[in-house]
Amino acid sequence: VAGLFLLNSCSSLKVYSDVDSSIDFTKYKSLEYYGWADESDKLLTQLDKDRIENAFGEEFKNRGFEIVESGGDMIVTLFIVVEQKTSTTATTTSMGGGYGGYYGGFYGYGPGYGWGGGHSTTQIQEYDYNVGTLVVDVFDKSAEKLIWEGIGTGTVDDNPQTRDKNIPKAVAKIMSNFPVQPMAE
Question: How is 76-118 classified by DSSP, letter by letter?
Fold first, then answer.
């Protein structure tokens, strides 16, 4: 599954977040990026890691945070999980059948009612798809505790041509519930 990311359409992206409501996020001015949690970055190509990191960087900058190499107020980490799933669909097609009319009876004459025969077939199709989950964790550096978490889950985009457009949209949707909103331009 290496290199297949991120979520192919913002409409299919499910976003969840959690926040420490006791925190005043306006006191934070800078952040350090600690990178990817163990093993999760091995699911991505360097190009996709860069796309995701740059998209989060832009989202934090748009909220007024400075990204520094060390000495930041907050620490940001990323984690990704890709899971293969299978979906099954069944389609039934019926032919013939129905209620008979007046013909029947004795030798084809006179009243005669009845049900006609018919048949149906059912086709079952299975297809595999990948579901990606991207998690961004934000920690208070001095208190060493988690203060916000954003999670996005959706089907994986396996088309490299659309990732440049879709990754920033998906990251923006994940960050939409961050306590500090983007500054007006």
Answer: EEEEEEEEEEEEEEEEEEEEEEEE--S--SBTTBS----EEEE
